[in-house]
Automatic annotation (TrEMBL):
Source organism, top-level taxon: Bacteria
Top EC class, one word: transferase
InterPro entries: 3'-5'_exonuclease_dom (IPR002562), 5-3_exonucl_a-hlix_arch_N (IPR020046), 5-3_exonuclease (IPR002421), 5-3_exonuclease_C_sf (IPR036279), DNA-dir_DNA_pol_A_CS (IPR019760), DNA-dir_DNA_pol_A_palm_dom (IPR001098), DNA/RNA_pol_sf (IPR043502), DNA_polI_H3TH (IPR020045)
Species the sequence originates in: Dyadobacter flavalbus
Name used for this protein in its record: DNA polymerase I
């Protein structure tokens, strides 16, 4: 199946309302009382289309307000030429809001900001939080917001279906190289609708040519004297307009609207309010459609299209033939196989050239397996395969609490089987017993797309998936680490095939919506069986592609074995001391109120501290902390952490604001949020580890992101106190690699003095300081060591003199001298970095110690910024990726040791270079010794690896 994805739709209400109003302008819809309902009717239809076909997991509708925005303040003529709002639209707006409230759909509005600013801010934050975001609007300006996981969704119009625009489409639409150039084009051409002046006489095509040559408006202005003729004159005469227009066209993505996924969920339709509103509007048909939703439509599964399957008047056997009596004897299966004359041709028919294929034009045989006899036969035949593909259908994203709806299997391209299971857990367990032997048969390989999800679901039912694993998502991740790895995308790219969308299982008007259990089994069979079938085919392709990038060994010996480790960790979970977090929350709340009061006292007034606009006005207009304060692209005062950090030593209010932000983040993001993520079934937190997100190979985690639990501040570290062992018989054991990336750098560069320092156990930062500052080791000061530590870690990331000067708050000239001295003392490091970059220029990729590739296509770019970024990636990726390889190998070895010895202790967390264990007291001496050994020896190198191991009553004490 397609694994559940967080899918957020953000609707631009005013754009959609205007669009709906004018769509019916020639034949308006008017009630018997004379009320024009065109805008509400069109908006409602559009909304239902999205809910039913796209099934977002989260949704929000943003509105403009009548209050002036920063754009009006910056340019009084902004939107001044717009015609007055049609009276019918003014009447429609409150009706649309009533509709949204009745459907429990969040309304997003904030004085001083337009809908696109609100949507831009939430889209960016949601994308960072792992959401797939769709901005529903016909407005072209939204192109500047599009990212890998943020798209424009142009609704269906005039018989044309909806259109989804991603990065590729926006770049093609505007004929640009980068998304951020959209606003440069808009700035030059202006916008008559919003009265943004632009450069007179410069239209879209001219703007595109100028940006193609000069890259940005700013760079164009700096080279304006190079432009001859009337065009050059126009630009020179309107430089201020060009800059202003770019600022006005730029969507603000830092609006003070905190992103909270909980606030953007659909909670269900209020039938009474819908009936009242739609009776008033005389929407009889729409009323039935909306009431049919009843529950949040986002959980409703799709309806399958008619399928070209062979028909039979009687019951079909497992292979689509008229059923013989199927027993559990192998002979019966053999006879069925022998009699299936169409099995082989189907393999050839499955590759249809020409147009893109889908289930309606591609031969296939998908079967429902819903009797004990058929289940036994299927289980038997799966058991005699070398490998098979399987997939699960469930009711939830949460693998711990998800209910199994069905299982699909495939072992031949074009043929697959779906086993439905009932809601009754005991009956489901009975069905799973037919398949337990084959799932736990280590001689039979298992294939899946994001197979960890399916393994966790089955584990919650007491079934362990064993045998050689093959995950198509992870295989593609090794082939194309910087791309996306969803099954639908892969099927399109590699098979030229459009899988059945989960949205299509709903059907059209009159079909009652519900969960997957409510959809007819025949329809689910087509959908689920196709998932298993397509995944099987993708696997066969990827297995042949992996050797071409030298990734087979990495796939088979690291990424696949790691799946079992992560399944164990995620299913075990971590115990949380909720009372400790409640106490911490109360303390933080008190500190927040106290800090807030002190900020107001320093400012001489109260204001919204969380509003960058209000904060900037207080700090820089009223208090005048800086003579020439910096501004953002939108003309707003910059109030970021970097600005406040520069001010904190001389202005108490800056320090207090930084404290306030830290307190607010700790409380909302961690202390108050973590208890809500505790599973009701297990009483523990079960994070999900992602193997296919970070291109470097590092693991990331979500729901919750435990990798981001703060460690740099005293307050932040306190949160780790809440992570506790299972019971009094256990303690927390933490094992952390010491300076792993520096040690890998030493090994890769072969620098003798650096290797010697590590192998002899010397303080590497003090040793570096002694060499760089040319003083005896005993004369190294704490300041010298601090600077050298920054250089040591910065070098790995290709730090520049400017970057170092910023981090150390020293002149750039001094930073340049430090880097120069560093490379003079460690010439092998500089030689290694040059070697890596030169090799990358030739190959356009770099590799880790285990052969993991990171592609750097911009390494030969003529754009200095892009090339510099690629060079830094080329230097860092092999080091950071090798560190990821090392800890993954260590995790596999430690997990195998724990399983072999049948220990009660469990690995429960992986955070960057640290592993955390719930360690049984009786096993701590053995566990401590083996964890240290297995981490240090995971991947032998000429530099000794070291670990720091701690034990305590909670994670903080252990760390």
């Amino acid at each position: 199946m397609n694994k559940p994805v967080h899918k957020l739709f953000l609707l631009d209400a005013m754009a959609l309302i205007y669009r709906a109003h004018f769509a019916f302008i020639k034949t308006p819809r008017v009630t018997s009382k004379g009320l024009n309902t065109s805008a509400v009717f069109g908006f409602t239809n559009t909304l239902l289309e999205v809910l039913q076909k796209e099934k977002p997991t989260h949704i929000g509708v943003a509105f403009d307000t009548s209050a002036p925005t920063f754009r009006h303040i910056q340019y009084e003529a902004y939107k001044a030429q717009r015609e007055a709002q049609p009276e019918d639209i003014a009447v429609a707006i409150p009706l649309v809001k009533r509709l949204l409230q009745a459907m429990c759909i969040p309304i997003l509005v904030l004085d001083g900001y337009e809908a696109d600013d609100i949507i831009g801010t939430i889209a960016r934050e949601a994308s960072l939080a792992g959401f797939e975001v769709f901005m529903m609007t016909p407005d072209k300006d939204y192109g500047q917001l599009v990212e890998e996981h943020v798209h424009i969704y142009k609704p269906a119009f005039m018989g044309k279906g909806p259109e989804v625009l991603g990065v590729k489409e926006i770049l093609e639409r505007w004929q640009i190289r980068r998304i951020d150039q959209v606003v440069d084009i808009l700035g030059l051409m202006g916008d008559a609708v919003d009265n943004i002046p632009g450069v007179p006489g410069v239209g879209e095509k001219t703007a595109q040519k100028l940006i193609a040559e000069y890259d940005t408006v700013e760079n164009l202005i700096s080279h304006v004297d190079d432009i001859k003729g009337k065009l050059g004159e126009k630009i020179r005469e309107n430089i201020d307009k060009a800059i202003l227009s770019k600022q006005l066209a730029t969507i603000d993505t830092k609006v003070p609207v905190p992103f909270d996924a909980e606030d953007l969920t659909v909670c269900g339709v209020n039938a009474d309010k819908i009936i009242e509103l739609f009776d008033e509007l005389e929407f009889r048909t729409l009323k039935q459609r909306v009431l049919a939703i009843n529950q949040p439509v986002i959980t409703t599964p799709p309806a399958a299209k008619p399928q070209p399957v062979r028909e039979s008047k009687g019951q079909l056997d497992l292979f689509g033939n008229p059923a013989a009596e199927l027993g559990s004897q192998p002979a019966a299966i053999t006879e069925i196989l022998a009699g299936d004359s169409n099995a082989e041709p189907l393999l050839e028919e499955f590759s249809i050239p020409g147009n893109k294929r889908d289930i309606s034009n591609t031969p296939h045989r998908y079967h429902t397996v819903d009797t004990p006899e058929l289940m036994k036969s299927l289980a038997y035949y799966l058991g005699i395969q070398e490998r098979f593909c399987f997939d699960t259908e469930t009711t939830s994203l949460d693998t711990i609490d998800a209910e199994l709806v069905g299982l699909s299997f495939s072992y031949l391209p074009g043929e697959a089987f779906y086993v439905p299971v009932p809601a009754d857990r005991e009956k489901t367990l009975e069905i799973l017993e037919y398949f337990r032997p084959v799932f736990e048969n280590e001689a039979v390989g298992k294939i899946g797309q994001n197979i960890k999800y399916d393994m966790l679901v089955l584990k919650s039912y007491g079934v362990d998936v064993k045998g050689k694993l093959s995950d198509t998502m992870l295989a593609h991740y090794l082939l194309e680490p910087d791309k996306r790895h969803g099954m639908d995308l892969l099927a399109n790219s590699y098979l030229h095939y459009d899988p059945v969308s989960i949205t299509s299982l709903i059907g059209k008007k009159g079909v009652k919506q519900g969960t997957m259990r409510d959809v007819a089994i025949a329809e689910i069979t087509q959908y689920a069986a196709e998932d298993a079938d397509i995944t099987l085919q993708l696997n066969d392709i990827f297995i042949k592609e992996l050797p071409k990038v030298n990734a087979t060994k990495l796939f088979e010996t690291v990424e696949m074995p790691l799946l079992n480790v992560l399944v164990s960790m995620e299913s075990t979970g971590v115990k949380l001391d909720i009372n400790a977090l409640k106490e911490m929350s109360a303390v933080l709340e008190g500190d927040l109120r106290q800090t807030e009061s002190e900020i107001y006292e320093s400012a001489g007034q109260s204001f919204n501290i969380s509003s960058p606009k209000q904060l900037g006005e207080v700090l820089f207009e009223k208090m005048k902390l800086i003579d020439k304060p910096k501004k953002t692209k939108t003309g707003q005062y910059a109030t970021g952490e970097d600005i406040l950090t520069e001010l904190e030593n001389n202005h108490v209010i800056a320090r207090k604001i930084l404290d306030y932000r830290e307190l607010q983040k700790l409380k909302s993001t961690y202390v108050d949020a973590l208890p809500l993520l505790v599973s009701r079934r297990t009483g523990r937190i079960h994070t999900s580890y992602n193997q296919a997100v970070a291109a470097t190979g590092r693991l990331s985690s979500t729901n919750p992101n435990l990798q981001n639990i703060p460690i740099r501040t005293v307050r932040g570290r306190e949160i780790r106190k809440a992570f506790v062992p299972d019971n009094e018989d256990f303690q927390i054991l933490s094992a952390d690699y010491s300076q792993i990336e520096l040690r890998i750098m030493a090994a890769f560069s072969g620098d003798e003095s650096m290797i010697e320092a590590f192998n002899q156990g010397r303080d590497i930062h003090a040793t570096t300081a002694s060499k760089v500052f040319n003083v005896p080791l005993e004369d190294v000061t704490s300041d010298m060591r601090r600077k050298s530590k920054t250089v040591n870690f910065g070098i790995i990331y290709g730090i520049s003199a400017f970057g170092l000067s910023q981090r150390l708050a020293i002149p750039r000239s001094e930073a340049s001298e430090i880097i120069k001295s560093y490379f003079e003392e460690f010439p092998s490091v500089k030689a290694y970095m040059d070697r890596v970059v030169n090799n990358a220029r030739e190959k356009e990729y770099v590799e880790t110690i285990l052969g993991r590739r990171r592609y750097v296509p911009d390494i030969n770019s003529r754009n200095q910024t892009n090339r510099g970024f690629a060079e830094r990636n080329a230097i860092n990726a092999p080091i950071q990726g090798s560190a990821a390889d090392m800890i993954k190998v260590a995790m596999i070895n430690i997990h195998d040791f724990i399983e072999k010895e049948k220990l009660k202790s469990r690995m429960i967390l992986q955070v960057h270079d640290e592993l955390v264990f719930d360690a049984h007291r009786d096993e701590i001496p053995l566990l401590k010794e083996k964890v240290d050994e297995l981490m240090r020896t995971a991947i032998p190198m000429q530099v000794k690896m070291e670990t720091g191991i701690g034990i305590g009553a909670n994670w903080l004490e252990a760390h």
